[in-house]
Amino acid sequence: MALDLHLKDPHLEQRLFRNRMLVAIVFVVVLLGVLVARFYNLQVVNYDDYRTQSDKNRIQVRPVPATRGLIYDRNGTLLADNRPSYTLAIVRERVRDMDGTLELIGDLVQLDDADVDKFHQRLQRRRPFEPVPLRYRLSEEEIARVSVNEFRLPGVSVEAELVRYYPLTQLFAHSVGYVGRISERELTAFTEEDVRRYRGTQSIGKVGLEKSYEDLLLGEVGYENVETNARGRVLRVLERHDPQPGSELTLHMDARLQQVATEALGAHRGSVVAIDVKTGGVLAFVSKPSFDPNLFVTGISYKDYSALRDSIDVPLFNRSVQGQYPPGSTLKPLMGLGGLAAGLIDRQTKVKDPGWYRLPNDTRLYRDWKRWGHGTRVDLTQALAESCDVYFYDLAHRWSIDGMHEVATRFGLGAKTGIDLPVERPGLFPSRDWKRGARGMPWFPGDNLNAVLGQGFVLATPLQLAVMTATIANRGTHYRPQVVMAVDGVEQPPEVLHHIEAKPEHWELIFEGMEAVVYGVRGTGKKAGAELGFRVAGKTGTAQVVGIAQGEEYDSEALKERHRDHALFVAFAPLEDPQIAVAVLVENGESGGAMAAPVAREVFHEWLSRPLEETAAILPGPVRLEKGGARG
Length: 632
Description:
Layout: H1 10-45, H2 47-58, E1 59-64, E2 71-72, E3 78-90, H3 98-108, H4 113-123, E4 132-135, H5 140-148, E5 156-165, E6 178-181, H6 184-188, H7 192-197, E7 203-207, H8 208-212, H9 214-218, E8 222-228, E9 234-241, E10 249-251, H10 255-265, E11 270-276, E12 282-288, H11 302-309, H12 319-322, H13 332-341, E13 351-353, E14 356-357, E15 366-367, E16 375-378, H14 380-385, H15 389-397, H16 401-410, H17 432-438, H18 445-452, H19 462-473, E17 477-479, E18 484-487, E19 490-491, E20 496-499, H20 504-519, E21 537-543, E22 566-573, E23 580-586, H21 592-608, H22 612-615
Parallel strand pairs: 2-10
Antiparallel strand pairs: 1-8, 2-3, 3-4, 3-5, 6-7, 8-9, 10-18, 11-12, 11-23, 13-16, 14-15, 17-20, 18-19, 21-22, 22-23
C-alpha cells in the first residue's frame, strides 16, 4: 500500500507568510502612528513649552544693575563715586560638590571663615541661577589663578561690578553716609517691588544721604538674555534692556569748608554745623571723630567693626544730629528776645548782680559763673556780652515756663528740624505738661532758672543750635535745613517753615548784645572775631557734664577729662548782612570762648574771605574732580 506523504505545502506557507506580513505591517503602521502622534505632540501641541525648557538650558535672563547716582559738593567735587571691582561668584545650580569647590577655591585665593559664612547666608536668599558673591575685590594675581583653573571650577566666575567708593574717606562719613550689603532683616522687609528693583545688586544705603535718598540714587534695574554653554559661561548676548542710572545729587556742602572745620576741631571730639542764612542750606556738617565709610561697602570685617563699635570715642555716633547736649548759655540771646517780646524786659532793664540769685522764700543760692558778679546794674547787652547768669535768673523768675517753651519751639528747639538726613533726634525743651507726664512731678520755680540757662532738662543737638542761630540772623525766617541742593541739576527750592515776628528794635538789641560777646571789653567770645575783615555776632556757652554741689567751685583738675564741661559757641556773620551761621560743640572743652569760638572763626574766615563767585554753587551739571583738585 502506497503512503501519501506531504512534506511541503506551498499554499499553506504562502498564506502563513501573508498573515505574518500583514501583522508586521499593521504593527509597523501602529508604531509609526504612535511616533507621528508623539512627534506631533512634541513639535506642535507642546512646542512652546519644550522650546522654553530647551532655551532655559542655554539662555539665561540676567539682571543688569543700574549705576548708582553720584554725589557732589556744591563746587563739583566728587564725594561718592562708583569704581570697578572684581568679585568671585558661584552659581549654585552648576556646582555638583559645593564643599569641594570651596576647598579648591581656598587653594587659589585667600578665603577666611567670615567669607564662607556670609556666602552661605547669601545662598539662602538668592534667586535661581543667580551668581552669589564669595569674595570681593580680587587682586589681578587672584583673577589669573582662577582663570587658569576655570576648567576645574564649573559654575564659578569672576565678575566685574561697580562698587561705591568715597574719595574723601572720613570727611563726609556722617553726612553722605555709606552703602552696605543687604542684610537678612532688610531682605525680609522687602516687598515684591523691592525684590525686583534690587535684582543684580547686593548693596543698599545704610546711613546718611545714601539712606535718605536711596530711592533716587538706586536707579532702575535692566536685564539681558544671554546664551551660555554647559559650564554656564556666557557665549553671546541675545537681547538687552539698559538700566536707568540713579539720580545725581549736588549738595549745599562745601568740601573745603568741611576740611577747614574738621581741622579746626583738632584732636577734640565735637561737632561743627554751618548753615546758609539765606536758604537753610547746610554748608558744613562735621562730627568728630569720624570713620572710613569705604570699610562698609563690601562688608566690614569683624575686627574693623569691633574697633569702631568698642571705641570710647564712639566714631559711629553722629554728634551733629544724634548728640543731645545741654545748650548752656547759647540760649541766652533767644531767651532775651523772648523776654523783650513778652514785655518783661527792655533796653533800660537793669539787674543787680552780686554773684548769686535767690528766689523769694528760698534759702538756696543760684550762683553766677562769675562768683563775684558782673556789677551793680547789668543791662541786656552786658548780660549777653559777659554771659551774666543772674540777669537771666531774674528774667526766668518773672516768666512762665510755658512762655519760654513757646519761644524755644518756634526757633526749632525740642523737635526734629526735618533735615534730609536719617536718625535725627528731637532734643528737649521742657514744659509743665512734659514734666508731669514724664516725671510725675509739678513744675517748680527753680526749674525756670535752670531752663533759661539751657541746663536742667533742656537738651539740643548742634544742628538745632545752628538752625536757631540762623533764624536769629535772618530776623525770624525759619528755614528747614537741607543738605541736598539739586537733583540731576534741578535745584531744590528753600523751604520756609514759618516767620517769627518781633519788633525791629528787639532784633537790634539782640544783635548788639551778640556783637558785644565778640568785641566787647569783657566779651566772652573775643577769639571768634580776631583779625577778620568783617563783624561777627555770637554767644558762648558752657554745659555741665556732671553736677556740682551748691557752694562748691568747678575744679577742672579734680575731674576726669570726660567729666569736664562741654564748650559751645553759636555765631553768624557778617553782622550787617548775615550770610552764614555756625554752631560749634567741643566735648569736654570747658570754655566756649577759648575752645569753641576759634573753631567758628576759622569757618567764617574760610567762607567769607572768598570772592563772591566762589561761594556760589555750580549748577547744573556738576564737574567731576579728583580729591584735592581745584574748585570748578
